[in-house]
TrEMBL record:
Gene3D superfamilies: Winged helix-like DNA-binding domain superfamily/Winged helix DNA-binding domain. This is MarR family transcriptional regulator. The keyword NAD does not apply. GO terms for biological process: response to stress.
Amino acid sequence: MPKKKLTQAEMPVADYAFYGLVWAGTVLTDRVDRALSKAHDLPVSWFEVLLWLASSPDPVPASVLGNSTMLSRSQVSRVVDALQSRGLVTRTPSPRDARSVEVSLTPEGHRLFEAADATRRECLAPVFTDLLDQDDLQALGTVWQKLKADKDA
């Protein structure tokens, strides 16, 4: 006898909300990863590092990238190695701490980020931003801030 799926009404609200977050994160990340890999040979983890670097006017300490991204410090190090080998980022010794390095985008890194960011936005529009209004997006931002604030506590 085939088993039926639970409906939203049969699931506790907190469980359904959690499932929704997991589903959305998995499906949207996979969609972006496929689009970025196909168009730019750029895995989503690399894009995440580029996003943080593009958002900063100054070079970013490698340790800050490890604390800011969804990647472990060792993953960040491998991603930065790969980005550097493609000429997209540079590493420079930190003027504040001789033991650490700072990472910044090269001009080619900025160009690739701009193109990849346009690809990301284009691929998400029909399944995310076009479906949600400003109130929805603001609510998601508020939820993310609450969840992140608890993580940082």
